[in-house]
Amino acid sequence: MSELIDKLLILRSPGVGPVGYEKLIRQFGSVESAADSLRHDVSLMDSVLREIDTANKLGIHFVCDDSDLYPVSLKNIKGHPPIISVRGNLDVLSHSCVGIVGTRHATAVGMKLVSDIAETFAKHSVAVVSGMAIGTDTAAHKGALRANGNVQTIAVLGGGVDYIWPVENESLYWEIIERGAVVSEMPIGFIPRAANFVQRNRWIAGISQKIILSEADLKSGSMRTAQFALDFSRELWAIPSHPSDARSAGPNSLIAKGVAKLCSGAGDFFEVVDNTGKNKLATDKNTESENLLLDALGSVPVSESVLAQVVKKTISEIKRDLVVLELRGLVRKTNNGYVRV
């Protein structure tokens, strides 16, 4: 306990981050000596003791970088957090990890694909890492949680490990704690600022062996995560999308530059067996009219009126065929029209 207090005294000092932490230890020769120089600050000591007391009450663990529990991939990056706080299942930290990131304003099709990929990784005992934001992050966590077991997913937060953000994901937060882990390098109770999310993105890339980028515009935080992945020599994958959608600009640009591999689904990483056969060669059993509809659909929503013009049928006939295809799981209705599954 005394060693943890010493480390937190250094790390919670104003203006001290991972780099400053290492600098102080080198300057004073040891953690204990560096901490001794700070013990006269009564308010700092009280703050550290309160944080430890809160952690004990909430079941939060402090994991130091000299612990066997500390993720090896994260420890190997320069400027890694000396201490992380963990709420949930500590075992998940020892598993291989894949980071899945993307826009908060993801399409239904994009989230479905992300969710399916995440579920497949979790079923193969690979922890899915994301930032618990709405949109892509939520889809990744929820997909992973569909798998059985307790090591499916890790949520890296920009604030304290006890600070639930966004509030819309409160139920997801508790489910992740129950069957995965929520982690942070920030003090318990810390309310995040914009700069903290950049650091959060940095170590989503650091803890993961692979990063998969879904929909994201060129100036998004997810693109920063992708750049961190390249800086850390991580395996980078990107899911392409229709070029008319601004959310495709990020992943499409990385694929075009040759710095990211094209990700088309879970089958790029694992042998995916479809026991139902629902989507496998499904068009063979469709009528000619239904096949024309399927050929006209992709990942971009198309309205019933446009489909009617393309296949040269009435709106009522189009609606009838779409209902049949939707029941078969071959198409999905969105706010802007229909997409192919």
Which fold name corresponds to the CATH topology of the largest domain?
Answer: Rossmann fold
Structural class: alpha/beta
Largest sheet: 9 strands, mixed
Question: What is the ordering of alpha helices and beta strands?
Answer: HHHHEHEEHEHEHEHEHEHEHHHEE
CATH architecture of the largest domain: 3-Layer(aba) Sandwich
Physical arrangement of strands within the biggest beta sheet: 1-2-6-5-4-3-7-8-9
Counting DSSP E segments of at least 2 residues, the number of strands comes to 11
Strand portion, in percent? 5-15%
The count of domains is 3
CATH class of the largest domain: Alpha Beta
Estimate the helix proportion, in percent.
40-55%
Structure description:
- This protein is an alpha/beta fold and 341 residues long.
- It folds into three domains: 1-58, no CATH class; 90-268, 3-Layer(aba) Sandwich (Rossmann fold); 282-340, Orthogonal Bundle (Arc Repressor Mutant, subunit A).
- Helices cover 43% and strands 13% of the residues.
- The protein contains 14 helices and eleven strands.
- A nine-stranded mixed beta sheet has the order 1-2-6-5-4-3-7-8-9, with helices on both faces. A two-stranded antiparallel ribbon has the order 10-11.
- Helix 6 (108-123) links the parallel strand 3 and strand 4.
- Helix 6 (108-123) packs parallel to helix 7.
- Residues 276-285 have low confidence and may be disordered.
